[in-house]
Amino acid sequence: MGRILRGIARRFPVVTLTGPRQSGKTTLAREAFPRHAYVSLESPDDRAFATTDPRGFLNRFRRPVILDEAQRVPDLFSYIQTMVDEDGRPGRYILTGSHNFLLMQSVSQSLAGRSAILHLLPFSLAELHERPLLSSDTIGLSVRNQRVPKERLWDRLFTGFYPRCYDQRTHAPEWLASYYRTYVERDVHQILSIGDQETFGRFVRLCAARSGQILNLSSLASDTGITHPTAQRWLSVLEASFLVMLLRPHHANYGKRMIKAPKLYFLDTGLLCYLLGIRRPEDLEIHSLRGAIFETFVVSELHKNYLHRGESPRLYYWRSSDGHEVDVIVERGEKLIPIEVKSSQTLATDSFDGLKYWLKLAGRQAAAPALVFGGRECYVREGVTVYPWFVL
Q1: Does 137 lie in the same domain as 115?
Q2: Residue at which a domain ends, from 53, 84, 119
Q3: pLDDT score of 264 more than 90
Q4: 144 and 114 in one domain?
Q5: What is the pLDDT, as a whole number, of residue 101?
Q6: Do residues 238 and 306 touch, judged by C-beta distance below 8 A?
Q7: Local structure of 240: helix, strand or coil
Q8: Same domain, 329 and 350
Q9: Are 108 and 255 in the same domain?
Q10: Neighbour tally for 146: CB within 10 Å
Q11: Which residues of 278-309 are buried (b: 16+ CB within 10 A; e: fewer)?
């Protein structure tokens, strides 16, 4: 992603890099721009300087600068606007931040049209395997044979994809527990001023139990013991903080009544496993939500695939009111790529039923179908390209 970041910085005076805490934003920015000055606004001294004298703070830098956790000083954005209007050299300011809600609010108010925006999520599977991303646009078109990794699927999903989980000195479950506590006690409180953290914690865990399911916000609010507007507000903060995403239904109904609610997904399976109380990879393999967790993994990888190429995701799902469903629909121009997801290592004949049903309805609009499963082979079966999990 560093190449994409540098390319965009050659066209815009400001580049905003946002994503969840500990996803590697600072590391990426500093490696991509080693000659830029760097300052973190988490530092009390630098934050105080930027708050009390924004112009003087910015005038310190005689060369382009990386401003880390820029959302901590919202007033700074108006001064950056003035400076880039006077001197619009590309790549002058690289802004990073973990609070997408707070950061984007400041960017939209002061830097609209002046800042490019990139999102960095935790590692993708391709990054961990040190290979190029599989383009979501080409999935289904060809068989991709790759070396079978030594790791087991369930070990990978249990650990998740946050960079710190791959530090040799870090025990992933302990780090994820600390990460979650920090997020609730500090970040969410800062945005929402939630007094009852126990209730919010229950809300997050109930969301985890619904990952991979169609969202019923009224039911979620009722089970948590909060109002519908509160549930909506809390969910929007989880989404803005890159902990969850909502997969919208595809608009085409093909003459059928459609489900119109989005599906809820967590963006990291390691954090999801922690919230579900799964404490060993072996427990995950036999867990009742194994299929939903695997589907969460596939959807999050496809989501990263777009974001880490600097593009907006074009992902949807399709489900009719009588229960026919395709897990993921990828828009590729005027064509639609249907993708089915199965966690099993072997596939039964009925694994392809949802795709066959949808293909008949979609007709010429349909592109080559695909199925991602928990097995280890790549092949074509019944006109469907079947991909093992590690190809994503």
Answers
A1: no
A2: 119
A3: yes
A4: no
A5: 59
A6: no
A7: helix
A8: yes
A9: no
A10: 13
A11: beebeebbebebbebbbbbbbbbbbbbbbbbe
User: How high is the pLDDT of residue 63?
Assistant: 92
**What is the pLDDT confidence band of residue 176, given thresholds at 50, 70 and 90?**
very high
Tally of domains within the chain: 2
- Nearest Cα neighbor of 66 from 26, 38, 98 is 38
What domain range includes position 286? 125-391
* Residues 74 and 178 reside in one and the same domain: no
Q: Are residues 132 and 258 in the same domain?
A: yes
- Report residue 358's pLDDT band, with 50, 70 and 90 as the boundaries: very high
Mean pLDDT, rounded, of the chain: 90
Q: Which two tokens stand for residue 193?
A: 């001023």
Which is it for the CA torsion 200, 22, 160, 277, positive or negative? negative
Q: Are 302 and 330 in contact (CB under 8 A)?
A: yes
State pLDDT tens for residues 29-51: 999 999 999 999 999 999 999 99
Q: Mean pLDDT, to the nearest integer, of 270-284?
A: 95
| Three-class secondary structure of residue 167 per DSSP | coil
Residue in 92, 68, 79, 86 with CA at minimum distance from that of residue 8:
92
Let me know whether 90 and 229 are in one domain.
Answer: no
Residue recorded with tokens 């040190």: 130
User: Which residues are registered as beta bridge partners of 335?
Assistant: 332
Helix (H) or strand (E) holding 14: strand 14-18
Comparing C-alpha atoms, which of 297, 295, 294, 298 is closest to residue 286?
Answer: 294
What is residue 139's predicted lDDT score, i.e. its pLDDT?
A: 84
pLDDT of residue 197: 81
